[in-house]
Amino acid sequence: MKNKKKSEVGARALGRNIRVSATKIRRIVDQIRGCSYGKAPVLPEFMPYKTCYLISQLILSAAANANTNFGLNKSDLFISEAQVENSTYLKRFRPRAQGRGYPIKKPICKVIIKPNSNFVGEIGR
């Protein structure tokens, strides 16, 4: 029963509570979706965004999970699914005039990366 549940879930890497807005991370994730494992960790290194390091670490973690838990060869992997979801907000207050408080919402997001060995990537990538 336990092995059946593991095969349904598949290999994945999950990054929770990343303190960046989802639109900023989607810029990076859209570039790596459908890429091979050899190309996917290298692409974020040449992008000028601060979350590129986190995304490349998630790619490496997803490949290690696929290799360790399912015995998949890393060289055969593709990034079959990459999702970025909005999460809650980190709520802060800024002091304003006459003793009032102004709410500040700092966005938090969640990233899910799933590698697959039999995924056919886009043509031209």
Describe the structure.
- By secondary structure, the protein is of the alpha+beta class.
- The protein is built from 3 helices and 3 strands; from the N terminus they run αβααββ.
- A 3-stranded antiparallel sheet has the order 1-3-2.
- The longest helix has 19 residues.
- The termini are far apart.
- The model has no long low-confidence stretch (mean pLDDT 86).
- It is elongated and about 65 Å long.
- A hairpin with a 5-residue loop joins strand 2 and strand 3.
In short:
Keywords: Chloroplast, Plastid, Ribonucleoprotein, Ribosomal protein, RNA-binding, rRNA-binding. The protein has helices spanning 2-9, 22-32, 52-70, and strands at 13-18, 78-95, 101-116.
Can you summarize the main beta sheet?
A: 3 strands, antiparallel
Q: What does the average pLDDT come to?
A: 86
Secondary structure tally, helices:
3
Helical content stands at: 25-40%
Name of the CATH first level: Alpha Beta
CATH topology tier name: Ribosomal Protein L22, Chain A
The order of strands across the largest sheet is 1-3-2
Q: Could you say how many structural domains there are in total?
A: 1
* Termini separation: 38 Å
Compressed to H and E, one letter per element, the order equals: HEHHEE
CATH superfamily: Ribosomal protein L22/L17
Estimate what percentage of residues fall within beta strands.
25-35%
Rg from Cα:
18 Å
Unreliable stretches covering 5 or more consecutive residues: none
Quickly give the structural class: alpha+beta
Keywords: Chloroplast, Plastid, Ribonucleoprotein, Ribosomal protein, RNA-binding, rRNA-binding
Family: Belongs to the universal ribosomal protein uL22 family.
Organism: Dryopteris fulgens
Function: This protein binds specifically to 23S rRNA.
